[in-house]
Each structure stands twice: as structure tokens, then as C-alpha cells.
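Practice problem: predict the structure.
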Amino acid sequence: MTVDKEDIRRRVEALKSVPTLPGVLEKITESVDSSETAAADIASIISSDQALSAKVLRLVNSAFYGFPGRISNVTHALIILGFDVVKGIVLSTSVFDMMLAKGLFGLWEHSLGCAVAAGVIAGRIEHPDPEEVSIAALLHDLGKVIIRIELPEESSLIEEAVEKKGISVYEAEEDILGLNHATVGKWLSTKWNLPRTLGDPIAYHHAPGLAELAPKQTAIVHLADILIRARGFGSGGDNLVHQIDPKAWGELNISDALLEEIINEMDDKLEDAEDFLGDDVRVQV
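Answer:
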């Protein structure tokens, strides 16, 4: 099968329904980009969609964000977490809807696990914005969802190649599409005008050495992805556990003792995440 890379790019960039576009998310994006916008204005936009507002608060108040039960309204979330983080959470809840609609619950579990691990790593190395790093991890495999939605035939071939050849999703995508989910994620993060602190980890979580503007955040998401794969939490589409990129490892400067502490804390928080991923979440989130 011959696939036109530029045709795929045009199709992805022309999407109108991924995710929450061009309605609530577009309004939020315009408001965030305006220097005159107050938190209450953006909160009002989110709250106008009651289902979305409930999802945002449920996610913010889940234990793995560190604010269990403490954030009572969207304005409070904006003040504590900042515009870009809440914008990312809005995206995340919408991405979950797409994953669930396409039967990708395992990918949602994997993404949520990565968010947990990234938050733990960021906290342990005293990164100034662990919540934003968690959002980047939650969104890092967005491109896989878009490929599944927009290219169902090719997606089936990718799954078949992963199973029969024992290769990674990333490698199968390159073989069949001539591009990969990280590239698709990069196109979308640019289209949505996401900050590079979110965009770089989405684009370069498999090649963290290429992240120029957010190398530490990208290194954290890269490591989180590997730790969650090793833990077997959810499904990234294959069962392979990749080696840690040496440049990313050097960027983080984590000792063996600190890594052990990170893994222990991650395991504890994943138990909370498993509760969050109960049967009621499959319907309500």
C-alpha cells in the first residue's frame, strides 16, 4: 500500500471534530491567548458545557493530580493550575472520549499511567510545574488516536505488523505510513497552538534528544512512558519496553536510589489511578 504523507498531513490538519473543535476548545484557545482574559471568563466557557465541566473537575480532583477533593469549581482549577494546564485537561477529557468511542480503553489506561509517572518524576526532581508535565504525558499518544480514527485500514495493517513481526507501533507506523504517531501529534499541537512545554513531549517522546525548547519535560515523559510499559499498566499498542535514551537520562540526572523511590511512589499512585479507572469511569469520564 502506498501512502501519501502530505495527504495524511492535510487530512489531519483539516479535522473539525478532534477534539472539541471548533467549539468550546477554540473559544478557550482564543481566550487563553488574549492578555485581557480573566480566569473567570475561561471558567465560564468551560462551565457552559456541563458535561465537560464535570469531566474536568473529576480529572483535576483525582488523586494522581495531588488535589483530591480540593478543587470545587473550574475557576479554582484555573487559578491553581494555570490556563495552559486546564486547556490540556480539556483536551485530555475530549481525547478520552475518542479513545473510548474507538475501543481504546487500554491506551487511555496507558496514558493515564504515564501522567501519574510523569507527575511523580517531576515532583522528585523538583520540576517547577509537575501538573503541566502530567498533562503532556496524558496527551503524548494523541497521534495514535488520530491514526485510528482517520486511517482505519492502515491502522489495521499497523496492528497486524505489530503482532506478526513483533515490532513496536512506532516502527510499524513508519513502515506502513512513512510517519508515526509522534509526528501526527506534533502537527496537531502546532495547529492548536499548544505551548512547547506540551508540544515537545508529544512530538519527541520517542526521540527526546530532538526537543530543543522543553528538553526536561520531554525527558520526563519519555521515562514515564518506559516505566509504565515496564509496569504493564494499560496498553500502548505493543508489549515492548524500550531502552531509556542516554541524553534524556543525562538530562534528568536520576540516581539509582532516586529511581527506586520514584518507582515505589508511582506504584502507590497507580493504585489510586486504578480506582479512578473503575467501571463508573468507563461511563462517566
